[in-house]
Every structure is written in structure tokens, then in C-alpha cells.
Design a protein that fits this description.
The protein has about 375 residues and is α/β, with parallel strands linked by helices. The protein is built from 11 helices and 14 strands. Strands 2-1-3-4-5-6 form a 6-stranded parallel β-sheet, sandwiched between helices. A 6-stranded parallel β-sheet has the order 9-8-7-10-11-12, with helices on both faces. A two-stranded antiparallel ribbon has the order 13-14. Helix 1 packs across helix 11 (about 345-360), helix 5 packs across helix 9 (about 310-325) and helix 8 (about 255-260) crosses helix 10 (about 325-345).
């Protein structure tokens, strides 16, 4: 007789439209099609996770797997969880923050989305046998080449580059704006659309940033406010001609893979997690490794790890190449879309996770 599958207690940020929120909903909704999933939604660390944990322990005892999809520093939510404990997390530097080490080390398994992320964990002292790759994905019914396009930018003949991601050094936003402004002249029919709001940075001031850059052709830039729905995001991808992301490091890169699924040719830094899904169709941006000198996490010894410094001149070359060879770029984008939608669904990640759960929750052999 086939035994019922061990259920999962999911502790994560279900609400919102940032990367962790999208990851949480896409992954656990897909996993729930394969085994029972009980979700405890958090706002920060506030939520009913402890009460849910206690009730599930009464119902299932040790026959329960707890998965927290959070920052590594917050994995103490698993400390009192019954059964196997899985920390599912995303990180971008080659150095794991000190306050992540103990909470992650106290779990049974660590899941990361990419092969690069797995190696980072191993390089930071976690045993290889403890670290698994469970990739993120896309909703292929929503992010696809066919579908409505936003008409917010009119139907003019200009070529549209798109970038989506918080304004920060890690995303390379300033580098992109500077390179675009330097490469294209005032009369060329091309625009750069940027969605780069950063609510996490109290000092974020877009007009001040643009003044400091000294933009020559401000009429060629358009800045997009936060999105109200994922349907709107998909319609924006389809209304553009190429996606460009000169990031310095990515733990996964959801906007990048969503743009690919929608058929956009992509220019992206050839480094970190996206190498798992950037194919031969992608325009890979040259780079070299540098020490991270602007910290975005705390460390005592001042070592923040390394990340990639994109080649500014090569970025200009690639943007010009895509702009002047748009039909070839369009074909490459559609080829990537077919591959991404076939290979990187949320269901694929859930299937990998389901197999891993079966292994870690199996009773020991007598």
C-alpha cells in the first residue's frame, strides 16, 4: 500500500511583489500539488508560525517537514520545529553573513536556487551533503511572448531596452544608465525604460541620482513606478525589445528569467546564479571579479566577499549590437523563451523538492 506523503509546514513571506514573495508563492503553490502544504505567512517575523508549528506537531509529531523560505539569519524559526528542518534561502555575495552561519548550520538541509549558490555555501563551510539546488521558476502561462502589451508608452517606432530591479550597486543600475546615455545619440530612436524604485533605501532620490550622473539625453529615459500586478509586468516585457541587466551578482534573477520567458533577448552579466539559465541565445556581458567595497550586510572583519564588475565598454557594444541587429536578437529571444518555458517552471522546482523531501523524511532502514 502506498503511504501518504509527509506534509510540509511552509514559513515564508507570502505577501508582496519582491523576489522572495514571488519565489514563495510560485514554489509552495506548485509543491502543494504534490503533497500537503500548510503555510504560515510572515510580515517581517510577525505571524502565526509558532502557533501553527505547535498545532502541526500535535497532529503529525515528527512526520512533518518544515521549510522556511527566508533570509538565513531568520532560520531560528525552525529551531523548535518537529521533524526535518529545511532552510531555503537566496544570497548574492561569495561571503555568507556571520549571523547566517549558526541558524543555517542548525538545519538538516540548506536549499539554494542555483549551482553557484550551492558552491558559495560549501565554500563558506557548510558540508556538501547538506546543500541542495532547488531552482526557482516562472509562470509560463503568464510570462510568454503571446499576450497583451501595455500601451503606456505609445506605439512609436523607438527601440525599447528594459531594466527591472531595485536601484543599488548590486544591480548595476547606475552603470546601465551611464552606458546607455553614452552610447546612443540624441536623435536615435531608442529608449531605456527602468523600474528601479528602492523602498529599502531611505536615501533613494532619483532626481538627485540623475543630477549626479549628468545625463545628456534625459528624454531617452523613462522611469516606471512600482507595479500593481504581475499581469502588468508581463505586458511591459512584451512591449519592449530587449532586457538588459548589468548586475554584479544575483541569487537567482526573476525579472531576467521572466523577460526571457516573454521572448526578449537579454544582455546580462555572465556570472553567478543566472548562468544556470542563460543559454547560447543570451548576450553575455564580460566582467572581472572585484572585492565588494560597499557593504550591504554586516561583518566584523570587513570582508564582504567578491562579485563581478561588468565591462562598461562591452555593455555598450552589446546594446549597440542588439539595437542594430534587432531581427536576429528577436529570434534569439524567442528561442530562449521556448527553452525557459519548457525547462524552468515552478513545477520543476517543486518536483525536485518533492523528491528531496521524500529522501529526508524517509524512515531509517532497520
Amino acid at each position: 500500500m502506498k503511504l501518504p506523503k509527509v506534509p510540509v509546514h511552509a514559513i515564508a513571506w507570502f505577501q508582496g511583489r519582491y523576489g522572495y514573495n514571488t519565489h514563495t508563492r510560485g514554489f509552495f503553490e506548485a509543491l502543494a500539488k504534490r503533497r500537503p502544504v500548510f503555510g504560515s505567512p510572515l510580515i517581517g517575523l510577525e505571524g502565526p508560525w509558532q502557533e501553527d508549528q505547535n498545532q502541526l506537531a500535535e497532529l503529525y509529531g515528527q512526520d512533518l517537514v518544515s521549510i522556511a523560505l527566508l533570509y538565513g539569519s531568520l532560520m531560528d524559526v525552525l529551531a523548535t520545529a518537529p521533524g526535518p528542518k529545511v532552510a531555503y534561502t537566496v544570497w548574492e555575495s561569495t561571503r555568507i553573513p556571520a549571523d547566517w552561519q549558526k541558524p543555517l548550520g542548525a538545519t538538516d538541509r540548506i536549499w539554494v536556487p542555483s549551482t553557484w549558490g550551492r558552491q558559495v555555501m560549501i565554500d563558506n563551510g557548510f558540508p556538501a551533503r547538506q546543500v541542495d539546488v532547488v531552482p526557482e521558476g516562472i509562470d509560463a502561462t503568464l510570462f510568454c511572448p503571446d499576450g497583451p502589451k501595455t500601451d503606456a508608452f505609445g506605439d512609436g517606432p523607438e527601440f525599447r531596452f528594459l531594466n527591472i530591479g531595485r536601484y543599488e550597486d548590486r544591480k548595476g543600475t547606475r552603470l546601465l544608465i551611464e552606458a546607455f546615455d553614452a552610447e546612443f545619440g540624441p536623435d536615435e530612436p531608442v529608449k531605456l525604460l527602468v523600474a528601479c524604485h528602492n523602498s529599502h533605501d531611505k536615501d533613494y532620490d532619483l532626481p538627485a541620482i540623475l543630477r549626479s550622473i549628468g545625463i545628456r539625453h534625459s528624454h531617452k529615459l523613462a522611469f516606471i513606478p512600482p507595479f500593481k500586478s504581475f499581469e502588468l509586468v508581463a505586458s511591459l516585457y512584451r512591449a519592449c525589445d530587449a532586457f538588459v541587466s548589468p548586475f554584479r551578482a544575483e541569487g537567482w534573477g526573476l525579472p531576467l528569467i521572466e523577460a526571457m520567458a516573454c521572448g526578449l533577448p537579454v544582455i546580462a552579466t555572465d556570472y553567478s546564479a543566472p548562468r544556470d539559465f542563460l543559454g547560447a541565445e543570451s548576450y553575455r556581458l564580460k566582467n572581472h571579479m572585484v572585492a565588494i567595497d560597499k557593504p550591504y550586510f554586516e561583518t566584523i572583519d570587513g570582508d564582504y566577499g567578491v562579485w563581478a564588475e561588468p565591462d562598461r565598454d562591452h555593455l555598450r557594444v552589446l546594446m549597440r549590437t542588439v539595437y542594430e541587429n534587432r531581427e536576429q536578437a528577436r529570434r534569439r529571444g524567442l528561442q530562449a523563451s521556448e527553452r525557459i518555458r519548457r525547462t524552468f517552471s515552478w513545477d520543476r522546482g517543486a518536483a525536485i523538492a518533492d523528491d528531496l523531501i521524500a529522501t529526508i523524511s524517509a524512515p531509517p532502514i532497520a
